[in-house]
Task: structure prediction
Amino acid sequence: MLKNKKIVYFCQECGYESAKWMGQCPGCKAWNTFVEEAVSPKKPASGGMKPMEKRQDPVVLNDIRLSEDERQTTKIGELDRVLGGGIVPGSLVLVGGDPGIGKSTLLLQVCRNLAEKQVSVLYISGEESLRQIKLRADRIGTFTDKLTLLCETNLEVIREIIQRRKPEVVIIDSIQTMFHEDISSAPGSVSQVRESTNILMQLAKGMGVSIFIVGHVTKEGNVAGPRVLEHMVDTVLYFEGDRHASYRILRAVKNRFGSTNEIGVFEMRNTGLEEVKNPSEFMLNGKPSGSSGSVVACSMEGTRPILVEIQALVCQSNFGIPRRTAVGTDFNRVNLLMAVLEKKVGIRLASYDAYVNIAGGMKMTEPAIDLGISLAVVSSCKDIVIPDSVVAFGEVGLSGEVRAVSMAGQRVAEAKKLGFETVILPEVCRKSLGDVKGIKLVYVSWIQEAINYITHK
Ligand code: TYD
Ligand code: MG
Result:
C-alpha cells in the first residue's frame, strides 16, 4: 500500500507543492513552512469516457429555468445581503476569520433561524464539546428540535451521517480539525484540508445540501492551509473587525452567486451577534463636535453608502523627517494627498507630522474619501472647525482637481437621511444629480474651492 504513495512537500502557508524540501517557499516566500505529506497517486478521472446513455447533451442557455425563491433566507438580513440574497441549495460557503471573532456564534444563530423555519440543520463541531455548544446556544436563545449536533472529526463518518440523515444545511466547525483516514498527514495540513473540502464539495453538489465551512486564518490573513481551498468553494466570507471594538464586518471575497462588494455589519452583544441596520449612524457615534481636524466623509461599500468620521492631527515635527501615519486607510494615498495640498494649494506641510485616522476602526480605501482626508488635514493644520453638518466626498487628482465618484445620488440621500445640511461634492456630479431638495449641495471642481468654502464659513 505504502509503495503506491508518493512523498511530497507542501508549504503550509500557501499550499505550494514540491518534490523536495526547501527552506524558503518560492510561492509565498515564507521560511521553514514545508512539511512532508504522503499522497496517493491520482486515480484516472472517473474511469475515462462515460457510457453513451450517461453522456449529457449541451442545453440551450435560455431553456434553463431558475427560481429566485430557491434561496433560503437566514433571517439575518446582513448575512443574506453578503450571500447575495440567501443560501443557495448545494452551495459550499467558507467563513474565515480570526479566532474569537464570532464565526461559531454567527453560524449557530443561522442554525437557530433555519431550525425555526423547519429546515433540518446538522452542526458538526470538531473543536468544542456538546456541552460547550449548549452553553453558547443558551446565550443565543431557544432552538427547535430541527437542529442536531454532532462532535466528529472523521470525514468518512460525517459523509455517512449526511447521506443517511439528509439534512438541508450542514455546518462544519473548522475544516482544520477534520481528517480523512486515507491520508497520513495531520489534520489541518494541506492534503487533509484539500481532501476534506473535496469530499464536502461532492456532498454539496451531489445531494444539494448547503454546507458552511469554518476556516481559521493565519497571521497573514489567509485562510490557514492552502489557498486552493478558496478556489474550491463557491463563496468565501471573511469576518473582520477590531479586537477592541464590538462591531464585526462580514465581507464577501468571492461569491459565485452574488456581488463581492457587499458587507454586513454586526455588533457582538452578550446574546450573540446583532445586526447593525444603519452602519453610518453606528460609525458616527461619538464624533466630537466643534473640534478641528475632523470631517465626515462618505464611502460606498457595495451598494450601501457609509458615512464615517475622518480625523487628522497635524503638528510641528521635532525631527528632520516628519512622521506620517494612516490608520484605516492607505498610507501612500495620505502622503499623495498631502503632497497635492503642499504643491497645488500652497499649504506648508513638509515640517509637520500628520496622523490620519478613520474613526471607528473601519478600513476604507475608496478614492471618494480623498476630499474628506484633505479637508481634515487642512482643518487640523489651520485649526479651522468644519461644522458638524457637513459631509464631503470626491476623488482628488494630482493637479488638485476634484474628480467624479460613482453613485453620488445615494451618498447625498444617506447624508440627508442622517440629518446633515451641507454636502461638498464634485462639480461633475451636478448633471447626474439634478435638483435635490432639503440639503445644500456645494459643487467644487478644485480642492482649493472646497478649502475656501470651509475657511469662509
Ligand atoms: P466564537 O463564535 O466562539 O468565535 P470563533 O468561532 O470565531 O472563534 O466567538 C466567541 C467570542 O464572542 C468570545 O470571545 C465570546 C464572545 N461572545 C459574546 O460576546 N456574546 C455571545 O453571546 C457569545 C455567544 C459570544
Ligand atoms: Mg469557533
